[in-house]
Design a protein that fits this description.
The complex is a heterotrimer of chains A (367), B (341) and C (278).
Chain A lengths: L20 H21 L7 H12 L12 H35 L12 H14 L2 H4 L3 H21 L7 H25 L4 H11 L8 H20 L1 H8 L2 H6 L4 H23 L5 H13 L3 H25 L8 H24 L7
Helix pairs in contact in A: 1-3, 1-14, 2-3, 3-9, 3-10, 3-12, 3-13, 3-14, 4-6, 4-7, 4-8, 4-12, 6-7, 6-12, 9-12, 13-14, 14-15
Chain B lengths: L1 H29 L20 E2 L6 E4 L5 E4 L6 E3 L2 H10 L5 E4 L12 H7 L2 E2 L3 H6 L4 E5 L4 H9 L4 E4 L6 H15 L2 H20 L9 E6 L3 E3 L4 H8 L3 E2 H4 L5 E3 L2 H7 L3 E6 L4 H10 L1 H4 L2 H4 L3 E5 H4 L6 H13 L11
Helix pairs in contact in B: 2-6, 6-7, 7-15
Chain C lengths: L2 E11 L2 E12 L3 E5 L6 H8 L7 E6 L2 E2 L5 H7 E4 L11 H7 L2 H4 L7 H13 L15 H14 L4 E5 L7 H17 L2 E6 L2 H5 L4 E6 L2 E6 L1 H4 L2 H8 L1 E7 L5 E7 L9 E3 L10
Parallel strand pairs in C: 3-8, 3-9, 6-7, 7-8
Antiparallel strand pairs in C: 1-2, 1-4, 4-5, 9-10, 11-12, 12-13
Helix pairs in contact in C: 3-6, 5-6
The chains are: A mainly alpha (367), B alpha/beta (341), C alpha/beta (278).
Chain lengths: 367, 341, 278
């Protein structure tokens, strides 16, 4: 039997109950733009849109074109030094956490896995706590994120070393090791906090940071976070096929030519870098890495190549949205970011869970 | 087989040991002094130099980060990020010049400037956006504040001066009054306030009868802490002619205290602090404590409790505490333990 | 012609010996059946052949070269492995799964080529799953999933294909289809190694049988040599009776070995039709 008809590409064979990637992005990207604009436009002082546009033009366009524009120093500072970096940091943090979540969920073959599983989050938090307690965070802007990154990587090394036997790291052991190390490092953070509770300033700083927050983010933080997130996402995108196969089981992956142990190492390291960079500039922000990949997967399916980038963009937008809420729900105080993500993300997650499991139970019809 | 078991246990032990070592090391060698618990020692900062330049404008000063700050002209839109800086400002500059204060200024139970902020309604300085929208011409931040806030403020082009806010001697407080005047261009007013401060201290000292024996005074901070050498409390006690029992027994800075040590040290006076309105409660609590009950202080009813607002400041308002302590210790028996200026 | 061979292999887990002194050879064009009761080590043997488990001692060679000397992808291009467990946690579509099967040829970066598409489509046709291509794999029955997994391995176009109990979840029609597929593959020049414990199913399809019991090779050779009543009774602990149909198809009927005091039960498996290799 000879085939004269052109064979369809795999991409065209889209499942009916999923949205095609194109439609997804057609809906998502405008939303992202709107959310980013809202992030820059909303703040505790009111600045008109023409002013904001003028500030951005002044900063981004060559000086020849902008000679006739002028803005007050206050407006300039507020838009360019406060709001824009904050929105940019929020986007990269959300993207990094979501991408890490995709990697973790694939690696552990579990849609409920999240970036903190391998201890990177707890390690980053401990690194930050150390920098507060030692007073280094008061001296320079860089020490807190640097120590947080260091903490994330160190804890990863420990978790991996504990879980590896004879060059093989079984995923179940990795998970348990991660849980144990996270608990231990969390206890370390709590210990340091309790020992320093009489130092009110430090204790407040620690607690606020442990709840996550994007207050006073500057362009320095952007440079501390964005490059790592970009590198991490790139590394993850390169490994998406390995991740796909690993998701089906290690034996299956090996039988299709994946170098299982080295792939796992690379993937875990990638997730740790992404998580470390995010926690380093935003403190402990939960739910993004768990919820966003899960939700996006329900819409566009589990193929990691598409899922990774889509989750990253969605995660970024989601976190910017959460940050806007954090700033505006209870003026003039800012609600801590981790609380907002939990409050927004928790019910959403429960809804998704119920919807999925109600479908599996054949008796209930859902609309 | 047993080798494998041992090698399986090593990583967790190593991990625990490393975490413990880091925690211990950080605690021992690197903790900075506290914020609100005052007076407090500063490790490695025994001699605080106020570094001001000449009187002519533009003025230069070096802050606690060793950064030079240039002030072009007298300032009229001043932002304070810390509660004790609020107190310096309101003592020295015209109140309308203070455009933003710390959050604590608006908390009635701990703020010494509450009436002033209620009258003049400055903004709260926690939100950098609002602060910068005010177009300030100088920002005064504490040496303990997070670097993020300070660096953001600095990058905005507004002069930011990082002030030392924890002191060990009354003389340092007095100098800081002058510093405040220097930074804001209110030198005369600052000089007047410094003089008032100085005189108030002297008057308090004068309450001490000549040739009176030196009273042995112990200060108690919250939950088992006391004040040793290198604290402002220590200097206050010394100024009033007393002996700081904590320092006498080797405490340095704001340090932990074992209540059993209190029995052994047997102070004649115990000074403690309490939340607003809880002073009598705290006295009763202390009297009820079995260790404290055995001291001379308890025996003679020489336990004095001041509310936070009085006890904690390290600013021009410290004169209230000094006066109150002098009156409590040296005045006639039966005087009130709460004294307001 | 390629040869995949293991010699004197010992596989241990902890203190247990799962395979000991096992030597097996497969050539392209053969359909080798690894036969034995549950726990005899069939799955392990297949995994050793596929390079998925390293034996504690002994050698595994492909065309005379030791398997560890090949890269993982090279092995994957030449040896396909279809596991018994068809459970998939994530809702991939069938076509996505089949596309993953081309990984050994594509690697990380290259995009889909016409050769890839042809291989995928051919594999889908061979396994009769073309109508399922758009479906999400978690909506399929166990049997359909099994065929999808076989197709996925076929998409690799390997020289050797190892099937671990492929008929375990299949109804009779599809079980026979799988056996016929195995025949066809061997006829086209692949080597098929099939692990099973269903005597009747494989009796007429195998070119060679390796009989395993408790990790040891009891017999290795043509079906006539291996499938003797004595050996079968020893390994499967049932009394077997061989009958030949008119077209030469063999079938076995079983009877439990007499226990003291219990009546023996006569059982008979359905014989396969004339699907024997010509």
């Amino acid at each position: 039997m000879s085939e004269t008809v052109a064979l369809p590409t795999v991409r065209e064979n889209a499942n009916r109950s999923r949205f095609s990637l194109t439609i997804f992005y057609l809906v998502l990207l405008p939303l992202v733009v709107v959310i980013l604009l809202a992030g820059v436009g909303i703040g505790s002082t009111s600045i008109t849109w023409p002013t904001i546009v003028r500030v951005i033009e002044l900063k981004l366009l060559p000086s020849l074109w902008t000679a006739s524009l002028s803005v007050s120093r206050a407006d300039n500072v507020i838009v360019w030094l406060i709001r824009v970096p904050r929105v940019v940091v929020a986007f990269f943090v959300g993207a990094g956490l979501a991408a890490a979540g995709v990697v973790m969920q694939g690696l552990f073959r579990n849609p409920l896995a999240e970036p903190g599983i391998v201890g990177a989050g707890a390690g980053a938090v401990l690194g930050g706590v150390v920098s507060f307690v030692a007073g280094w965070s008061a001296r320079s802007v860089i020490t807190l994120p640097a120590l947080a990154m260091l903490g994330a990587l160190l804890s990863l090394v420990i978790v991996y070393a504990m879980a590896t036997r004879g060059g093989v790291t079984p995923v179940a052991t990795l998970l348990l090791s991660g849980v144990a190390v996270s608990a231990l490092l969390g206890a370390g953070s709590s210990l340091l906090l309790s020992l320093n509770i009489v130092n009110w300033q430090i204790a407040q700083d620690i607690v606020f940071w442990m709840m996550g927050g994007l207050d006073a983010r500057t362009w320095t933080h952007v440079w501390l976070c964005a490059p790592f997130v970009l590198v991490g996402v790139l590394a993850a995108v390169i490994q998406t096929r390995d991740l796909d196969l690993l998701q089906l089981g290690e034996e299956t992956a090996a039988s299709f030519g994946v170098n299982v142990e080295s792939s796992k190492r690379m993937l875990v390291l990638t997730a740790a870098i992404l998580t470390g960079a995010a926690v380093a500039v935003a403190g402990m922000v939960g739910f993004v890495g768990l919820l966003v990949p899960h939700a996006v997967r329900l819409v566009i399916g589990p193929a990691n190549r598409a899922l990774l980038l889509a989750s990253a963009v969605t995660g970024g937008a989601f976190l910017v949205l959460c940050d806007i809420c954090a700033r505006t729900l209870h003026p003039p105080t800012e609600i801590r970011l981790g609380i907002v993500t939990a409050l927004l993300g928790g019910p959403l997650f429960i809804f998704l869970l119920l919807r999925q499991y109600r479908g599996a139970d054949g008796q209930h019809e859902h609309p | 087989m047993s080798y494998r078991r041992i090698s399986a246990l090593v990583p967790p032990f190593v991990l625990v040991a490393v975490v413990a070592a880091i925690a211990a090391g950080v605690q021992r060698y690197a903790s900075p002094p506290g914020g609100l618990q005052l007076p407090v020692a500063m490790e490695g900062e025994g001699d605080m130099r106020i570094r001001m330049g000449g009187k002519a404008y533009p003025r230069q000063a070096i802050d606690s980060d060793d950064l030079g700050v240039t002030i072009a002209k007298p300032t009229h839109r001043i932002v304070s990020q810390y509660w004790s800086i609020d107190e310096y400002l309101y003592s020295v500059v015209p109140p309308l010049d203070v455009v933003a204060v710390s959050q604590s200024a608006y908390v009635k139970s701990i703020s010494n400037v509450y009436d002033l902020v209620q009258r003049f309604h400055p903004f709260v300085s926690t939100d950098p956006e609002r602060v910068l929208a005010l177009d300030p011409d100088i920002m005064l931040v504490s040496s303990y504040g997070r670097a993020d806030y300070t660096s953001l403020a600095r990058s905005s082009g507004v002069p930011v001066y990082r002030m030392q806010t924890s002191f060990q001697t009354l003389a340092q407080v007095e100098e800081t009054i002058r510093l405040t005047g220097y930074l804001t261009g209110n030198d005369e007013s600052a000089e007047k306030e410094a003089a008032r401060f100085h005189t108030a201290i002297e008057n308090a000292q004068a309450l001490r009868p000549p040739n009176a024996p030196k009273p042995r005074i112990l200060g108690l901070g919250g939950s088992g802490y006391s004040y040793g050498t290198e604290t402002l409390f220590n200097d206050i006690v010394r100024t009033l002619g007393g002996i700081n029992v904590g320092a006498e027994n080797g405490l340095t800075g704001y340090d932990e205290l074992n209540l059993e040590q209190v029995i052994r040290w047997n102070p004649e006076w115990i000074i403690a602090e309490a939340d607003h309105g809880k002073e009598k409660e705290v006295v009763a609590q202390l009297m009820a404590d079995p260790a404290i009950a055995l001291t001379q202080a308890a025996h003679n009813g020489h336990i004095v409790v001041f509310e936070n607002r009085v006890f904690l400041p390290m600013s021009p308002y410290t004169t209230v505490l000094v006066r109150a302590m002098a009156e409590a210790i040296y005045a006639k028996p039966g005087s009130d333990s709460e004294v307001r200026e | 012609m390629s040869i995949l061979e293991i010699r004197n292999v010992l596989v241990e887990r902890g203190k247990r010996e799962i395979l000991s002194e096992v030597s097996v050879q497969v050539r392209t064009g053969e359909l080798l059946v690894v036969l034995g009761p549950n726990g005899s080590g069939k799955s392990t043997l297949l995994r050793v052949l596929g390079g998925l488990w390293q034996p504690s001692s002994g050698s595994v060679t492909l065309d005379g070269r030791a398997l560890p000397a090949f890269s993982r992808r090279e092995i994957a291009r030449r040896i396909g492995f279809v596991p018994q467990d068809t459970h998939v946690d994530f809702a991939f579509t069938v076509s996505e799964l089949l596309a993953m099967g081309r990984y050994p040829h594509r690697g990380r970066f290259s995009s889909e080529t016409p050769a890839d598409r042809a291989a995928i489509h051919a594999a889908a046709e061979q396994c009769d799953i073309v109508p399922l291509l758009d479906r999400s794999v978690d909506t399929l029955s166990g049997g359909e999933r099994q065929r999808v997994l076989i197709a996925r391995s076929l998409a690799v176009q390997p020289e050797f294909i190892l099937l671990d109990e492929p008929t375990a979840n299949l109804d009779i029609e599809h079980s026979l289809e799988v056996l016929e597929l195995a025949d066809a593959l061997a006829a086209k020049g692949a080597a098929v190694v099939l692990a099973s414990h269903d005597l009747n199913l494989i009796a007429n399809h195998a070119t060679g049988i390796v009989l395993l019991q408790s990790g040891k090779v009891i017999a290795n050779g043509s079906p006539e040599e291996v499938l003797t009543p004595v050996r079968l009774e020893q390994v499967f602990r049932v009394r077997t009776e061989l009958s030949e149909a008119t077209d030469g198809a063999r079938s076995f009927s079983f009877q439990r070995l007499p226990q003291s005091g219990l009546p023996s039960v006569r059982g008979k498996s359905v014989a396969g039709p004339a699907g024997s290799r010509s």
